[in-house]
Amino acid sequence: MVRCFLIHTVCPVSALSAGESRVLYSRFFGPDEGVLAEQQRELSPEERRLLQVEKAAVVARQVRSAVSLSREASGRQLVEAVPGEEALALQEANSGVVRLRAGDPFSDEMSALWLGVQSLGFTLVCEPHENLLLAEGTLRNLTRHCLEHLHMLGQGSEVLLRSNRIDALLSRLLPHGQLLFLNHRFAQSLEKEVAAYMAK
């Protein structure tokens, strides 16, 4: 099962210091660890939400660090793509997996799959027994739809204002945090459904 999906910054942004990452969108799936953990049962809903925000920030920082290392190791220059070149930007994206130790930030060990597309990071946090190839395909598909339909690479892209569209994407491509095995016909019908929704 996928525990969360994040969109965050992976490059220095003018409002942030060099080592910081800003979470632009987060969606958690599955059981709320705050309800399950004995010591956190007394927390109010607002305190649980703040705990989730902190977990997302920890993951974003670790992924940002991994993206930086990957880009330094590859030696490739980061070339800004313009709107309309989303497919090319996705093709040239850095990708990888970060192992999240138990307790940092989730109570169990997790795997964070990431794609670094220019200044944005797209991350899926999965339970360790998940099929990582299937998760990577799902992450690439989600990222492609976000880039193409929500035009996230353009200047002044307002990811926060488009969260309802990202929610709709997730409900179709990652229902309740479950990875889907898609045959060709079902994948095509899902593509049409998503394209029709995003065109509204």
TrEMBL record:
Protein name: AP-5 complex subunit sigma-1
Gene: AP5S1
Any one annotated GO CC term: lysosome
GO biological process: double-strand break repair via homologous recombination; endosomal transport
